[in-house]
Structure formats: C-alpha cells, structure tokens
Amino acid sequence: MFAKYVLGLLLAALAYCPMAANAQSAPSNGMADKGLIIRVMDRLLFIDVGRQEGVQAGDIFDIVDSEVVTHPLSGDTLSITPRSVGALQVRQVYPKMALAELMHIQAARDPMLMRIEPIENSERLL
Each residue's pLDDT tens digit in the chain (126 positions)? Predict the structure, then answer.
C-alpha cells in the first residue's frame, strides 16, 4: 500500500513538472508561467524564476499544491487536481531567481518545493 502511495505522489510530481524548461512558452503578460519555491526562510521565499523569465518586483503568484485522489481499494491514481493553497508577492528580482514575501498560506502548510503560477487577477485576494 505504501508503494502505491509513493507511486501516486511520483505521478503527481511528474504531471506538473515540465520535462524541459525550454519547451514552455512565456505567457502573454511577459511573466513566467510556472516556477518553484526553492527555499523558505520564515515569510521570505526564494523562487526559481527571475528577470530572464519576465518576473518583476510586485508580481503576485499563487502557491499551488496537487491533490491526488486514489481509489480506496485498488490504490490506482484517479485524478491529480491542482489547487491554490496560498499566495506570494515578489520583492526583489535577480536574473534567474527572485525573493518573495509570503502573503498567506493555508494553516500547517510548508510551501517548500511547491509550484507557483502567476495570478491574472490579484483583486480576488482582497
């Protein structure tokens, strides 16, 4: 059963991690379409996208986690659903990374290695 659980997590990770960074195109707003939180220091988050991907100070990203639904008897993965669990705002940008402030996150969630996606309409956070 544990092996099936680990397999489900692995499938979830593979479903949402690009196989080649160059295979994805940037969104029309010029901001990176996806990234990853690579380090957490209290409310300061390091993300693996930066100026080269069009990220600017003030950009807001969703923190996205994947919910894996498995069949209770067979252990088969039935679906992998991305969902927003928080948000961050970019404060300082470097060529290949950026520093961001954690705006909010669901209770007891560790954002380390979670995906990020740009928020098109930041008014929904207010």
Answer: 444 443 344 444 434 443 333 333 334 456 677 999 999 999 999 999 999 999 999 999 999 999 999 999 999 999 999 999 999 999 999 999 999 999 999 988 899 999 999 997 777 666
Domains of the chain (ranges plus CATH)? 2-18+29-120 (2.40.10.410)
The 3-class secondary structure across the chain, one letter per residue, is CHHHHHHHHHHHHHHHCCCCHHHCCCCCCCCCCCEEEEEEECCEEEECCCHHHCCCCCCEEEEEEEEEEECCCCCCEEEEEEEEEEEEEEEEECCCCEEEEEEEECCCCCCCCCEEEECCCHHHHC
Per-residue tokens: 90: 């970019």
